[in-house]
Design goal:
Elements lengths: L28 H17 L9 E6 L2 E5 L13 E5 L2 E2 L10 H10 L5 E4 L3 H7 L16 H5 L3 E4 L7 H12 L8 E4 L3 E6 L2 H20 L10
Parallel strand pairs: 6-7
Antiparallel strand pairs: 1-2, 1-5, 2-3, 3-4, 5-8, 7-8
């Protein structure tokens, strides 16, 4: 892949790459986008997302690269990423995912975040459809792995995907935890979204969230489930 030939990620200055947010020191835009394409394809090939429902982004210095609206994780290329500068798409580029405000909310909350992933994986989405007694901690940790890898998962009230109502509800949830800051979120009747310090952190966190949701779903009718 030659990023210099792609409008959406051209003019990427290596000096803008923050080593705290790249996987291995100062990673170039080309390399991090190659890694993002691999991660997206991995989710798609294993049935953890389908169609054009998912989106992901990476932050390099002051710029964010996010998948374009309507893109499919199964066939992403470098041309399917839009550069966001100072919160807005670079003029003349393709249209970013309509869920860009969700990503910006997570980057705004945590200056160390280097990537955000949102998919519609089956078990996390199923779990998001159920009522939960504690909306700040909706996913039980039946094994130690969820807490170790990701931490708590909070629920976000339902609103139509891509709507200002959803973005407002998400910003309120992200910014109003009173010291109980979750590391992952379930959008009600929609799907999971996580951030990570690096792309691979976010990738592994999403993997753990979906696995935990699968275990929780399979155990939901088990007697004395709360004691597990």
């Amino acid at each position: 892949m030659n990023v210099d030939k792609v409008d959406e990620v051209d003019n990427a200055d290596e000096s803008n790459v923050d080593g705290n947010n790249a996987e291995e020191g100062n990673m170039t835009a080309e390399k991090i986008i190659e890694q993002a394409i691999w991660a997206a394809r991995s989710f798609y090939d294993r049935g953890k997302t389908s169609g054009s429902s998912a989106n992901l982004s990476v932050r390099l210095g002051e710029d964010i690269y996010i998948t374009v609206t309507g893109s499919c994780f199964g066939c992403l290329s470098a041309a399917d990423f839009v550069r966001i500068s100072r919160g807005s798409p670079v003029p003349g580029h393709k249209k970013p995912s309509r869920e860009l405000p969700l990503h910006l909310a997570l980057y705004g909350r945590d200056e160390t975040a280097g990537a955000v992933i949102h998919i519609h994986s089956t078990y996390a989405t199923l779990w998001s459809c159920l009522p939960h007694p504690d909306e700040d901690d909706v996913l039980p940790s039946c094994t130690p792995h969820l807490r170790a890898k990701l931490g708590r998962v909070a629920s976000v009230p339902y609103a139509e995907p891509g709507s200002e109502e959803l973005f407002a509800a998400f910003r309120a949830r992200v910014g109003g935890q009173n010291g109980r800051e979750p590391n992952g979120y379930l959008l009600r009747n929609h799907g999971p979204i996580v951030a990570g310090k690096t792309l691979m952190d976010a990738y592994f966190s999403m993997e753990e969230l979906e696995d935990a949701a699968k275990i929780a779903w399979l155990l939901k009718d088990f007697p004395d489930r709360e004691k597990l």
